[in-house]
């Protein structure tokens, strides 16, 4: 089975961000692998372990520094890396990013593509979906469970309001991965060292796709600080119900 | 000159930090209170992550990484639990490393491989009741009889003692030779008849790391378990301790960083006089000193580690790194307790444990005084 995992390198979310005109200042930040993409990598590696004869490519778009995140993916078990070099990646819109991934995937006939549900910085949650559309693949978003048996796939996806849905489909397909799908493995030290020797190809973005943007971020800013948080009032039973509803709908603590 | 870590070193730090925070930190307080060594967590898990043989070549079961990676691993473990940090340091630097440096090919295959893969755990026996800083005062004796060596004597304060399966032990093989000349190094396996464990020390700090007495009573080991040349054990011990100092320096560095992180985080939360105490210049000055000293220690530690990997001499540099890092750890943890005030003095916060843990780094694997002797002698040679 040929599998593609699309990952993004994002700043450590504990960073102190300074804003520029349309994005944050990317200098002097500590960079990490996007959390949701770790679930994507883990799922792909788990499939390889299940099937034995799979081939895992990890793809990332950005300047040379993104190769560090790719090395982590290789150390976790991906077989090869495709680095699409783009020094102005933060100016691309989701359509352009998806066009780059789709252009590569179209020629390489992947059976499965895994993406994170969204990136921790831009959080558009569009790249996976648009990529699937461009490839004509079925796409299931926010998956929290994945089963592959005899060539057919059953996944659980997370809906709003604490609901879940079960979806079944066949390859080729694209999935976006949500918190709760799995616990990503640690890249062991020997595998970190071996990752150096795995194939890593860098291709300039312009050689793959030059699709135009269809949207533009005009400004980014910190929201005004609101004090006080949320105060619930009422009798105990009603308060408990409302609190439970908020926890279910707006957080992941209720599973 | 490059001051940046490599991609691999960054990945190793991320991995070990993530493991340390999610798996090691949660039980650190309880293990300290109960003086409990958790082998599954503090050794077997490290082996699964490939940490028990970091610096050794793949052919000996290692990961083939460098000493900076090793220092980073010990630092990150010690940032949340100094007992786990020293477990790795004593195993790798004090037992596996002398076997790698001085062992025959057969000894490496038989002992180093299972140590590096973490199938077996290692320890080092040098210190005795009457031979601490003065290693030349070793009284444990080894007498050759046919194809065997017979060991008699005892070793005290042995980290990983009782838990480890493989021990590198120093003993006097020539009672006529003066001081350090007649000492040899041996590999002794746990469960060898005549080899037993005495007192388990009850310590101020690193309480989750076992410290035991080793007792040898007509303990017979094969002749082939001599490590290095007969009579050259002192040199084996000194070389071993040069490497060990990098591990302990990294442990101290991790303790300092852990305490600094706790202090900064607490200072930003804790309000007095209607403001977070981090807004007060008096607190900021303390934090500034703590951070500056910790950074300075880090550069010394990584420099010694770099030299060890590059095949350069590092005896002087590792002594400086250990001296600086351990004294920094003691100062920084003491200041961290001060910043946390009454809460810092309670066991509800980890800084009091860090302060107790820091003290030993000024004592074991060469006291601060011994480090100054090493550094001073190198300057005035």
Radius of gyration of chain A: 19 Å
Listing every helix as H and every strand as E from the N terminus to the C terminus, the arrangement of chain A reads EEEHEHEHEHEEEEHEHH
Report the mean per-residue pLDDT of chain B as an integer. 96
Q: What is the assigned CATH homologous superfamily of the largest domain in chain B?
A: Butyryl-CoA Dehydrogenase, subunit A, domain 3
Question: Can you tell me about this structure?
Answer:
The complex is a heterodimer of chains A (255) and B (381). Chain A has 255 residues and is an alpha/beta fold. Chain A contains seven helices and eleven strands. Chain A has one domain (2-208): Rossmann fold (3-Layer(aba) Sandwich), CATH 3.40.50.620. Chain A has helices spanning 35-51, 66-76, 94-108, 127-135, 189-195, 205-208, 236-250; strands at 2-7, 9-11, 31-33, 55-62, 80-85, 112-116, 139-149, 152-158, 164-169, 173-177, 199-204. In chain A, the strands form two sheets. Chain A has a nine-stranded mixed sheet, with helices on both faces. Chain A has a two-stranded antiparallel sheet with strand order 2-3. In chain A, helix 2 packs across helix 5 and helix 3 (94-108) packs across helix 4 (127-135). With 381 residues, chain B is of the alpha+beta class. Chain B folds into three domains: 7-121, Acyl-CoA dehydrogenase/oxidase, N-terminal domain (Butyryl-Coa Dehydrogenase, subunit A, domain 1, Orthogonal Bundle), CATH 1.10.540.10; 123-233, Beta Barrel (Butyryl-CoA Dehydrogenase, subunit A, domain 2), CATH 2.40.110; 235-380, Up-down Bundle (Butyryl-CoA Dehydrogenase, subunit A, domain 3), CATH 1.20.140.10. Chain B is built from eleven helices and ten strands. A four-stranded mixed sheet of chain B has the order 1-4-5-8. In chain B, a hairpin with a 2-residue loop joins strand 9 and strand 10 (275-276). Chain B is globular, with a radius of gyration of 21 Å. Classes of the chains: A alpha/beta (255), B alpha+beta (381). Chains A and B meet through helix 2 and helix 5 of A and helix 1 of B.
């Amino acid at each position: 089975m040929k599998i593609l995992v699309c990952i993004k390198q994002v700043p450590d979310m504990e960073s102190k961000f300074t804003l520029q005109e349309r994005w944050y200042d990317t200098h002097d930040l500590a960079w990490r692998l996007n959390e949701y993409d770790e679930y994507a990598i883990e799922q792909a590696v788990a499939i390889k372990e299940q099937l034995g004869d799979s081939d895992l490519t990890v793809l990332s778009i950005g300047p040379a520094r993104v190769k560090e995140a790719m090395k982590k993916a290789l150390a976790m078990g991906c077989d090869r890396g495709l680095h699409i070099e783009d020094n102005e990646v933060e100016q691309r819109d989701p359509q352009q990013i998806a066009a780059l991934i789709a252009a590569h995937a179209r020629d390489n006939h992947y059976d499965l593509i895994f993406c994170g549900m969204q990136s921790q910085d831009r959080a558009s949650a569009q790249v996976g979906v648009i990529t699937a559309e461009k490839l004509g693949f079925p796409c299931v978003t926010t998956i929290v469970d994945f089963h592959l048996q005899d060539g057919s796939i059953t996944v659980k996806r997370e809906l709003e309001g604490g609901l879940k849905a079960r979806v079944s489909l066949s390859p080729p397909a694209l999935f976006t991965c949500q918190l709760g799908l799995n616990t990503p493995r640690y890249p062991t030290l020997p595998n970190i060292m071996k990752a150096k020797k795995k194939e890593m190809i860098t291709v300039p973005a312009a050689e793959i796709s030059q699709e135009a943007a269809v949207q533009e971020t005009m400004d980014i800013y910190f929201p005004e600080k609101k004090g006080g948080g949320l105060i619930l009032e009422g009798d105990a039973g009603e308060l408990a119900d409302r609190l439970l509803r908020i926890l279910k709908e707006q957080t992941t603590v209720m599973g | 000159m490059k001051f940046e870590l490599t991609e691999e070193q960054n990945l190793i730090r991320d991995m070990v930090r993530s493991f340390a925070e999610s798996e090691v930190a949660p039980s650190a307080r309880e293990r300290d209170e109960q003086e409990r060594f958790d082998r599954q967590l503090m050794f077997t898990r490290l082996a699964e992550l490939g940490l028990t043989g970091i610096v050794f070549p793949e052919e000996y079961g290692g990961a083939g990484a460098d000493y900076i990676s090793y220092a980073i691993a010990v630092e990150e473990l010690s940032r949340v639990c100094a007992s786990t940090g020293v477990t790795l340091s004593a195993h790798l630097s004090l037992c596996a490393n002398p076997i790698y440096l001085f062992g025959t090919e057969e000894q490496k295959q038989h002992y180093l491989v299972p140590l590096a893969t973490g199938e077996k755990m290692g320890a080092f026996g040098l210190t005795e009741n009457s031979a601490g800083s003065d290693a030349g005062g070793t009284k444990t004796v080894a007498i050759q009889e046919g194809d065997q060596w017979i060991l008699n004597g005892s070793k005290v304060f042995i980290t990983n003692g009782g838990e480890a399966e493989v021990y590198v032990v120093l003993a006097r093989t020539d009672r006529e030779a003066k001081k350090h000349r007649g000492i040899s190094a041996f590999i002794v396996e746990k469960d060898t008849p005549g080899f037993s464990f005495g007192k388990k020390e009850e310590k101020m700090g690193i309480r989750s790391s076992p410290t035991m007495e080793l007792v040898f009573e007509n303990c017979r080991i094969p002749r082939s378990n001599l490590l290095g040349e007969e009579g050259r054990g002192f040199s084996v011990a000194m070389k071993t301790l040069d490497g060990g100092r990098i591990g302990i320096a990294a442990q101290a560095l991790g303790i300092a960083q852990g305490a600094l992180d706790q202090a900064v985080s607490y200072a930003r939360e804790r309000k007095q006089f209607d403001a977070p105490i981090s807004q007060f210049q008096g607190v900021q000055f303390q934090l500034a000193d703590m951070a500056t000293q910790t950074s300075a220690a880090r550069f010394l530690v990584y420099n010694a580690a770099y030299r060890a990997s590059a095949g350069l001499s590092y005896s002087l540099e590792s002594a400086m790194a250990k001296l600086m890092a351990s004294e920094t750890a003691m100062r920084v943890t003491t200041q961290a307790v001060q910043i946390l005030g009454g809460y810092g003095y309670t066991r509800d916060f980890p800084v009091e444990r860090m302060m107790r843990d820091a003290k030993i780094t000024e004592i074991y694997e060469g006291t601060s005084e011994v480090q100054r002797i090493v550094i001073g002698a190198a300057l005035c040679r």
